[in-house]
């Protein structure tokens, strides 16, 4: 049976999953990039985002170990993705045209159908490498059903950001497993991931945790 998973979602020590004021220059909000420093020089990230990784760390060999293991796990057995419109891009309101096709260039790292939650209809976008962005206007449950239909039998669905999207699925009790990566930074402002959500009453338990020099990994399972 397909599971809905959150993998490698970075949060700060003070619980923020994104910084404030997201825009084209700050896709994760002001300061939000610091939440993901743990992954940028891993082997997995370098393989999947070669151009971006190279601009950050040059020709260094990708780092192996616990951080890389968790990063790689996030792409195992995935048959489809779901993400919020904020993760897809900075455009708000009705689509003025079809020019924006995501942050990731012509060949996004997903290579499976990706269902984008939005209030504004848009035709699917077929990208290189097997990624197709499909836009869902009738809510989180409809997106999950479409993702399960699109995924090959036995494959899981990975839920991306942003924070609001994960909070919606979490409070609805639809997420089976959440891998959080706590980075050793404070944001002070931004979007709080778990504030006001009773994860215990929802049935979640910590089933795995590990720390490295770069982050603390916590897996919550329902």
Description:
By secondary structure, this protein is an alpha/beta fold. It has one domain (about 30-90, about 105-220): Dihydrofolate Reductase, subunit A. It starts with a strand and ends with a strand. The chain is globular and about 45 Å long. It has helices spanning about 35-40, 45-50, 50-55, 65-75, 85-90, 140-150, 165-170, and strands at about 5-10, 15-20, 80-85, 115, 125, 130-135, 155-160, 175-180, 190, 205-210, 215-220. The strands form 2 sheets. A 9-stranded mixed sheet has the order 5-6-4-3-7-1-8-11-10, with helices on both faces. The protein has a two-stranded antiparallel ribbon with strand order 2-9. About 35% of the residues are buried. The protein has 7 helices and 11 strands.
Question: In a few lines, what is going on in this structure?
Answer:
The protein has 222 residues and is of the alpha/beta class. It is built from 7 helices and 11 strands. β3, α5 and β4 (113-117) form a beta-alpha-beta unit.
């Amino acid at each position: 049976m397909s599971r809905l998973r959150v993998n490698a979602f970075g949060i700060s020590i003070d619980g923020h999953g994104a910084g404030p004021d997201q825009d084209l220059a700050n896709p994760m909000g002001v300061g939000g990039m610091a939440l993901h420093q743990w992954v940028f020089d891993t082997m997995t990230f370098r393989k999947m985002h070669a151009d971006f990784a190279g601009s950050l760390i040059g020709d260094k060999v990708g780092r192996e170990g616990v951080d890389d293991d968790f990063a790689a796990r996030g792409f195992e057995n995935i048959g489809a993705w779901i993400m919020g419109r904020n993760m897809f891009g900075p455009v708000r309101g009705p689509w003025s045209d079809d020019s924006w096709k995501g942050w990731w260039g012509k060949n996004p790292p997903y290579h499976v159908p990706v269902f984008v939650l939005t209030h504004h209809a848009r035709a699917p976008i077929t990208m290189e490498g097997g990624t197709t962005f499909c836009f869902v206007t009738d809510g989180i449950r409809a997106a999950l059903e479409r993702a399960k239909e699109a995924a090959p039998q036995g494959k899981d669905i990975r839920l991306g950001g942003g924070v609001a999207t994960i909070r919606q699925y979490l409070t609805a009790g639809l997420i089976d497993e959440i891998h959080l990566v706590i980075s050793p930074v404070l944001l002070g402002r931004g979007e709080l991931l778990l504030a006001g959500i009773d994860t215990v009453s929802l049935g979640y338990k910590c089933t795995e945790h590990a720390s490295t020099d770069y982050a603390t990994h916590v897996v919550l399972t329902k």
